[in-house]
């Protein structure tokens, strides 16, 4: 008897709270439009445990010119992160490889090295903060800072990267400067690079102009 | 003459500002999808004074096993709160009744007692902050903290609860632990409760496993 | 034996977490400087249950020209609210009394009426949203909106106000316009009030100029 | 050979990042519903340079009763600002003109004067902060504060206004109080203005009641 | 000649920006008081690369009753994280070990498993979201949710945890309920546990009452 | 008589609210430590109108290698902006001058051109958004994006820049890459620039290594 009453009250309570708890999380409906705060939420009824799990954080193929691979679990790959202000990526760098200069606009990056040796750093107008990292080390790259990671050890290096945004972006400096159709003269003028240098890298990274 | 000009300018001003003022508030369209920042806004033209008023904050029926009733005015019941970071609930606890241990993920609760006597508190790993409250007292339960409220006086107790979120949720510990289908052994292992205790409460709160 | 180990681990865990939990709340040290996010935190060791409780939410004295009284529990009166984004006030309005036009810059107000009858509303350039409220009703005044409350019933009216800020401020229009030393001509020019009206209210509210 | 590999990796990287970078900006789709965080984003494929540019920040027509003109570039006129927390307006005030008392709920205003002389100020219950400004001066009006701007020089005055919100709104005090249908007696009671003054301004600003 | 001019201008630019860039990061001065937004910043002149690096993310000692170890890099251990909204912990669980039910008030947790097998989940009033995870899997626990992690494989399991806060706290349910001096009857009443069960666990976790 | 009562009540009201209104603004005490949310507030009693006004937004000296001058009014120059999320700068570019590639980590920039012609743009990994601007035009550069401004007209160009942060910083790409002591080989490796190019620009911008 008592139990029925309790369950009844709990149902009453959970009626109002189960709707309220829609906002306890908001799994992205990637087919719907984005908003400044993230994607629309999938209906609660359609959400399962699988929405909160991401598979495939395994070693990427580093058999390329960078000798590096980046596997990202951002909201577009892992919709359960929507609205939660966090995401991650796996970084594999073969010997002599590197992740060149880049920024994440508006997201801080926290690097956890698990194998090998990585020399990493970020740049400000007045200082460089850089360090050679070994397994057991963490390094933080504050939001929006230009930074790099190089495998300076022997053999492969692996790290996990986490970000203070579900959608941190990744803006590689060379892609920004040399993969587009801005006139080479304009790029030279606004970077102080030699025109020939700009043209050479435009050819390499697919830019025109 | 002058008046016409003024009105004209004011219409000009109000043309840009009346659209801008859509964001002065954003009454929820509960039939549309939710987003991480809340529901889509109802069109301004459809909004009336009634959207900003909630009726029914009256004494709930405490004739149940808890001897308690919670009436909530969260965004799902009161769409005018959408995006405004505030909501409320009315709490009625009959003699000997209580609201058992629960949390509101990410919302602070501020309790205003108006009748009777309530002993309330919240728990941290190293301290308990609890107090017996009488009409004229307020108590704050910082965001995400496990807390409880007990009627420790004679006769009924009534309080108003307000929250720093339009959708604070309410996670009752017993519902979390005992109303689901997690195996009883797993619940026992991760709570240090005796298996028999888990099974007993699973039976009471409708859980299986 | 086992227990010792457990307690040891828990102490280890609670060592890192008890420091971490400093941020679970941040009771204001009102003698220290304020910051844009609120006051500095009192040391955890000095915090007791009393920091989370406020006394004195009782009927204020309405024996004045307003026939009204406002008792506030903002961070400056209730330091436990610091950083938690919520506060409250108690409103008592005698028959024929009112709280005149005012704003709370950057805070939403949620009104819970508990006795009597209050007619309340807020103003936008294109609409008025107003309503006569009775016990059991709530009304929300979105952030920064000019609003008012009038006792339109018989006998006293009482309401609880809650705010989406620990420090909502309260800017009474008459105090803004008429209690200062701005030249009356300037006030008249920027309000379209008659100069005589401005001078009359300056005299009433203590302004000069 | 190498180049192909590089381009391939860059395509791989840019595949994940180009989607991630949807959130680097979120140009408003003004035909879609608004949300508490702003409008839905236009699809990335439809976005061009024109979405980030606004034309028409030219002198407005001040041939009206105010001798003033306000040209706004808020998100509703300049959709590229959506979600970015910034907007602007151009202010032209002819000799003897003024922008009367008003607030922007929840947005700070920063004024840059470029021509003429403007006396501006904002009001708190206990102080007035006002100043006569000349080209080369800036003045900040903290969020939600009642403020005004008057041309106190010879000839025209021009200023640029910027706001800490993509949609700051603009609530002119006279429009709030006198353009609606609130009973004149209620307005008089809640402002302490004489009833005749209220009725006179209601007539001027189009209000009834 | 030219270079001098350039350097001069750059110094001019960097004069304003190097001060501005104090806020590009804010390394905690842990000896100064905390605020709701974090600790005060160390002076820029005292900051070195070491402030952005944390050492010691190595396997903890799991030779305890939990068969588990948690090594945290929160702002109190890693001051460079201050104000950046991110932190991390390393989790080692020996065979049959587990991290019992706990919450992080206001922080989302993202788990990256690197060795072994972990069964993890979080609880809502109406559902359980749980999963058995293997290396290469990620799982997200939305903010404030009660959750657990169990080593359900053979041999040791290791995971990295990251949080959407520099100071996520960690509230272990058993410590909250059983390590304090709340009367056992009160704990029983507000949890529906049997009094004997409460007393047994109070004895185990060091609580009195 | 009545007036005295009113003034008394207003003093009562203004007693609680004048303290509350400390947070209506928070003028920076630049001699005190910074926090993640900004500087500590100056005491209210010391604040005057001058704290909200900045002088000196006049044409800078463009007689340098850039043919450009930037005059900033950030919180470090204009303490009244503290905590308000907005700031400004004046940009003067002589014929053929430019502001080279740079970012503002975490701040959006809104440009208002008032004289001459400026070609400006920002870069993403997949697109360039650029435009030639004339007086009356605005352009927005979303937060953290790499961008540039060039005088492409005849004679001087002037623009006002506003930012969605009181302290936006300004990270000039050449200063980041070439004014420090990172080994030239490392810079070359992480930018794909030729080593000779790196060395040439290091010599120009004062870097070593």
Automatic annotation (TrEMBL), chains A, B, C, D, E, F:
Annotated S-S bridges? 26-41
Looking up PROSITE patterns in the UniProt record yields: GERMIN (PS00725)
Chief subcellular site? secreted
- Kindly indicate where the leader peptide sits in this chain: 1-20
Its family remark reads: Belongs to the germin family.
Q: Where does Mn(2+) bind?
A: 102, 104, 109, 147
Keyword annotations for this protein, in alphabetical order, are: Apoplast, Disulfide bond, Glycoprotein, Manganese, Metal-binding, Receptor, Secreted, Signal
**Which residues are oxalate-binding?**
104, 109
Q: Which organism is it from?
A: Medicago truncatula
Q: Which domain of life is it from?
A: Eukaryota
Which Gene Ontology MF annotations are present?
Answer: manganese ion binding
* GO CC annotations, alphabetized: apoplast; extracellular matrix
Keyword check for Mitochondrion: no
UniProt protein name: Germin-like protein
């Amino acid at each position: 008897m008592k139990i029925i009453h309790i369950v009844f009250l709990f149902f009453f309570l959970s009626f109002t709270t189960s709707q309220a708890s829609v906002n306890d999380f908001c799994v992205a409906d990637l087919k719907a439009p984005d908003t400044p705060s993230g994607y629309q939420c999938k209906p609660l009824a359609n959400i399962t445990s699988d929405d909160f799990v991401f598979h495939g954080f395994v070693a990427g193929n580093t058999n390329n010119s960078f000798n590096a691979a980046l596997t990202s679990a951002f909201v577009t790959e892992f919709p359960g992160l929507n609205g939660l202000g966090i995401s991650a990526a796996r970084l594999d760098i073969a010997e002599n490889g590197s992740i060149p200069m880049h920024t994440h606009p508006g997201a801080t990056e926290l690097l956890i090295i698990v194998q090998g040796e990585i020399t990493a750093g970020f740049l400000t107008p007045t200082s460089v903060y850089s360090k050679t990292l070994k397994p057991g080390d963490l390094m933080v790259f504050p939001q929006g800072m230009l930074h790099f990671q190089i495998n300076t050890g022997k053999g492969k290096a692996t790290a996990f990267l986490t970000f203070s945004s579900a959608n941190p972006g990744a803006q590689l400096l060379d892609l920004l400067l040399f993969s587009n159709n801005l006139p080479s003269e304009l790029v030279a003028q606004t970077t102080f690079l030699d025109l020939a240098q700009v043209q050479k890298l435009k050819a390499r990274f697919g830019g025109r102009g």
